[in-house]
Structure formats: structure tokens, C-alpha cells
Amino acid sequence: MPYDGLVLAAITRELQEKLTGGRIDRIHQPTKDEVILVVRRPGFRGRLLLSANARSARVHLTRTTRENPAAAPVFCMVLRKHLEGGRIISMRQPGLERVLVIRVESRDELGRQSYKQLICEIMGKHSNILLVEPVTNVIIDGIKRYTHAVSRHREVLPGQPYLPPPFQNKLNPLLLNEEEFRQHCLDVPLETTLLELLQGGFEGLSKVTCREIIDRANLTPDVLLDHCGEYELRSLWEPFHQIMALTRNGRFVPCLTCGKKSKAMDFAALELTHTGLAIKHGEMNDLVDQFFYEREQAEVINKERNHVIAVLKKEMSRLEKKLDLYRASLKATAEANKFKLYGELLTANLYRLKQGQPEACLENYYESREQIVTIPLERHRSPSENAQRYFKKYIKARNTRTALEPRIADAREEMLYLEGVKTDLEQAGSLPELAEIKQELAEQGYLKSPPPSPGGKKKKKERLLPKPLSFVSSDGMQILVGKNNKQNDYLTLKLARENDLWLHTKDIHGSHVIIRTEGKEISASTLTEAAALAAFFSKGRSSTNVPVDYTLKKHVSKPKGARPGMVIYRQQRTIIAMPDEKLVEELGDRSREEGKIKG
Fold first, then answer.
1. CA-based nearest residue to 483, from 448, 445, 432, 443
2. Within 13 Å of residue 454, how many CA atoms lie on the same side as its CB?
3. What secondary structure does DSSP assign to 26-93, as a single string?
4. Of the residues 411, 445, 491, 527, which has the fewest C-beta atoms closer than 10 A?
């Protein structure tokens, strides 16, 4: 995780400026390992997040809100008792350790002045938040309690003395001179890489920070010390020394690197030039908050998506079993015409047959060249009864086939529908999009509808219209894309005008795409770009050549009783398109730029 000692140093400096002297108004514990302090001072009110989560331990100001439990946990009640109404008088980070000590001045039960320390230890799975009595150095409580059975180094229990986390035998890079740096490099094994040298030998440095230092030295992280001489060590010391000098002086350059679709990738307290990614600058607290907000949103989206996909897979498995049964039953009706033939031949030859015959060899007069057909008979039945038996078999098989064919068609249609919804889920990139798909599945009976509000009174829901994606072509024409069935129906049936151009991948589930014509002629480039969007937002996204049908919207209609997203169209033409993610980003950027200009 890129939350290293340098990042905490930058965050601590910002917190000192904003929160020192601030009053702790409220304390919340939304999850078992997160605490929120609501701090107020003249001209400022902020929410300080303290997290001891094993995957995302951190400290920073946050703008996001979290739902609190109905009953506050024990640790939250302890913090409220000792810290609510108190004032933050200092914040301190020992060296570049990922430890923040918040000193709070408050009043005890008798109104006497007292001091408490809230210690945040950011150390992966060993992270913790502890409330400590500074005079006696006794633990009042910890968000994670454990005994020596869990940790031989220390116990975290009320009443036990507070011991700092175990020493990692790393050097404080803020206190080193060049000679000490060189000596450390000479003391480690020669097979150590430069990345291992920096991260394993100096406190407070994450991998991404070490890679930046090495890159500024014009070296590579996997170079062994054995291959480094005086020049390489000198080159490594220069950026290392410069960064530490800036850190000592509190001069940070907080940055957030962004990948595709502006997705936050890494953050650091210094410029990350080695990544080659787009860089966003700002306050360290804001950048860290954005990074973890995006990551948490992605985790929530994945969790929601996987839950719904699991439901769909269960339904699709059920349908597949049903189809297998239908196919087996249909296969058993394949001899229906043979039974009919047997009955007719027996009826036509009753005068030639006698009861007790095991079989009848009769001429098939339906064939141009008469063939002899051997018909098995039941000896205890008369020839007429054998003929009726075959007619009954024929009628039963015919009726079975008549009943099965529409059921098979319905099951296949339902399977195609579910596969399409599954594609929409896999391509959904936001919670509102997932909510639309879940609402559709609830309306179709695949998911349970949310329970009614307490008291039995149904709240009047605010109707939120679907929001299809908007793009602008290279010729300046607006292109709208539906991301799911609800958006597709809204886009095609409500939003599109009669002379707009409608596009959809041929015989492949995908988005409805509309080119707003506004009375203008559509150029070949706009048509090609719209077709590329239709191909990209479809099940054929991973293909190279995708056929896309297009026609005027007035030639598109929805059959009565059709499933969401299902339409029929006519007078279409077909174009071959190639899904292009880069083009999608360019057209989306153009749309956002035009929106800013209009705004």
C-alpha cells in the first residue's frame, strides 16, 4: 500500500494546521475498525478518519459519509467518554514511522483538566487505534484487543502498559548523512536489489516512493548492489537526500496518479514522474481520501455485481437443466410420423391380418417405390387394436411436441435475456447503473423487491430517469448510448426522435445507440464512430470485427409484452465496426468539454 511514512508526514503537517486547537464535537465508529472524529474550530469543520483495517489502514480527513450502527460499539463509547468535548493540542509522528499520536486536552468526571493520547498505528494487519493515559502510559482501550497468545511483543488490553510496535531495525532517513547512507549500502548483502535496499533499510518508504527515487537516479529497481559502484551509489544518494531535505522542511508535493478513465492508481507525498501516468495535485488529505473512496466504491460495486451475477448464474443453470429435459422429451417425439404411418398401414390392411401375429410386413404405398415395412404387433391385441395403439402414440407424441416447442422457445428467449443482463452487469461501472439493473431484475421476478418502509406506509419514490451515456462525434453530433435494458428502453422509446439514427449490434446483445440528427445529414465518420460505440458496449467487445445494424428510429418498435430492452426493427443496413476503447475515451472527453463550455 502506498500509504507510507512520507504520506503520513504530509498528512500530519496538514492536520496540524487545520485541527490543532479544534474541538472534538462527535465521535462515530461506522465499522469495527474505523473511527470518525468530527472536529470543529473557527472557520473549519472536518471529519478525521482513523482506520485500523488490515487492507486500508490510514489517517486522513474525509468528505465521505458512512452509515453508523444503531448501537455504538464499546470502543466508540470509551472514546466519547474521554475525548468528546476535548481539544486537540498536538499531533506528532515519531520519525517517519507510520504512527500518529494525537494529544487531546479534556475534562474528567470531576471537571478536572486531563490529557489523553489517541495513537494510530498503521501497520497492515497489525494496525490498531489505542487510547492511552499519557501520565501513567496505561492503555485505556484499543479498537483491537489481544493478549500474549496473539502477540509475544505486547498485550493490548485495558489497564496494561502501552508498548510501541516492535522496532523494525530500519534507519530514520531524515537523520542520515551521505557517509551513513553509503555505509548502510555496504553492510547489506550484495545480492540485494536497489528496491529492497531502500524499502528494507529505511523507515517510511513504500515501493512506489522507492521506485521514484531509483528512477530519478537513472537506475532500475531490480539492479543488484553487486553491480553498483561509486557512481551508482552517488547517483542514488542525490535524489534520496533531496527528498529527505524537502520532507524535513515540510515541503511536500502531494500527487495522485490516474490511469484509464481517470482511475486513481497510486498516491505519494512527492511527484511520481516514473509512472508515466497522468498526475493530479492537491492536498495530501484530499488525494488520499479520493484514492480510498474510489477503491471502496469499486469494492462495493464488485460485491454487488458478483451477488447479482450469482443469482443470474443460478437461474441460467436452472434454465439449462430445463432445456435439457425439454430436448430429451422432444427427441422422444421424433418417431411420431412413424407411429402415424404404422397406424395407417395397419388400418388399410386389416383384412390381411390375424390376431396373434408378432409382426406385419406391409407395403408402404406412400413411397414412389413400394417398400416393405415391418410393424411390431402385440399378440394379445387384434389388428384393429394395434392400429389404434399406434394412432394413440402418434397423437401423444404430436401433442407433446406442440406443447414443448413454445416452451423451448420461451426458455431460449429467457436464457438470451439473462445472458444479456449478465453482460450489462459485467460492463456496469457505477452503483446507479447496478441499481437500475437490480430494479429491472426485481420487476422481472428474479430478485426480491426491497421491503416496505416501517409502519406499513409506502414512501412515494422519487422517479429517477435513466441517464444514458453521452458522446460527441468528431463532426460535433451527439451520440447517446444505453448501458442496460432500462436505459435502452428509455433511450429508444422516450428520448429518441423519429429521424434519429438507431444502431445495435447484429444478433449480439448490446447497447442501443442513437445519433441525434437534428435535421442534419450524418457523415461517414460519425456513423463509423457510433458503430464503434455500439460494438464496444456489447457482448462483442473483445472481438475485432462486429456487425452493427442501423436504421431510422421510426423503424424500431417494441412488441407488446416484450422483455426490457427487446425491440424489433426493419429497413436496416449493416456496417462492420471495431470496438475501440481509446475512441470511446476521446468521444467521452469531447462530450465533457462541450458540457463545460455550455455550462
1. 432
2. 0
3. EEEEEETTEEEEEEEETTEEEEEEEE--TTT-EEEEE----PPPSS--HHHHHHHHHHTT-EEEEEE-
4. 445
194-203 pLDDT, tens per residue? 999 999 999 9
What are the C-alpha distances in Å from 318 to residues 218, 222, 312?
Answer: 59, 52, 10
Within 13 Å and on the Cβ side, how many CA atoms surround 526?
Answer: 21
Task: At 439, list the grid cell.
Answer: 430494479
Neighbours of 38 (CB within 10 A): 16
Q: Is the pLDDT of residue 184 over 80?
A: yes
Q: Are 131 and 118 in contact (CB under 8 A)?
A: yes
Q: What is the mean pLDDT of residues 446-458?
A: 64
Under CATH, what is the fold of the domain 173-281?
Helicase, Ruva Protein; domain 3 (1.10.8)
Q: Where are the beta strands (DSSP E) in 75-150?
A: 87-92, 99-107, 113-121, 128-133, 138-142
Which band of pLDDT confidence, cut at 50, 70 and 90, is reported for residue 365? Answer: confident
**CA distance linking residue 238 with residue 233, whole number of Å:** 9
Residue whose cell numbers read 479544534: 22
CB atoms within 10 A of CB 171: 15
Q: Is the dihedral angle over the CA atoms 286, 287, 292, 297 positive or is it negative?
A: positive
Q: Which residues contact 578 (CB under 8 A, 6 or more apart)?
A: 532, 535, 544, 545, 546
Q: How many CB atoms lie within 10 A of CB 270?
A: 23
Cell 514511522 -> residue: 97
Cell of 257: 496518479
As a CATH number, domain 5-142 is 2.30.310.10
For 85-103, what is the mean pLDDT? 95
How many angstroms separate the CA atoms of 273 and 276, rounded?
Answer: 6
The DSSP line for 356-411 is T-SEEEEEETTSSS-EEEEEE--TTS-HHHHHHHHHHHHHHHHHHHHHHHHHHHHH
Give the strands of the sheet with 278-281, arranged side by side.
Answer: 264-268, 255-258, 278-281
- At a CB cut-off of 8 Å and minimum separation 6, what does 127 contact? 33, 51, 52, 53, 54, 57, 121, 144
The pLDDT of 527-546, averaged and rounded, is: 94
The amino acid that residue 301 corresponds to is I
DSSP state of 352: G
User: C-alpha distances in angstroms, 239 versus 121, 219, 236, 276, 509?
Assistant: 28, 11, 6, 18, 53
Please give the pLDDT value at position 599: 46
Q: Which residue has the cell 423487491?
A: 449
Q: pTM of the predicted model, to two decimals? A: 0.80
Pull the grid cell for residue 441: 431484475
Q: What angle do CA 542, 543, 549 make, to 5 degrees?
A: 115
CATH class of 308-449: mainly alpha
Domain spans of the chain, in order of start: 5-142, 173-281, 308-449, 469-598
For residues 56 and 464, what is the distance between their CA atoms, to the nearest angstrom? 34
pLDDT attached to residue 20: 95
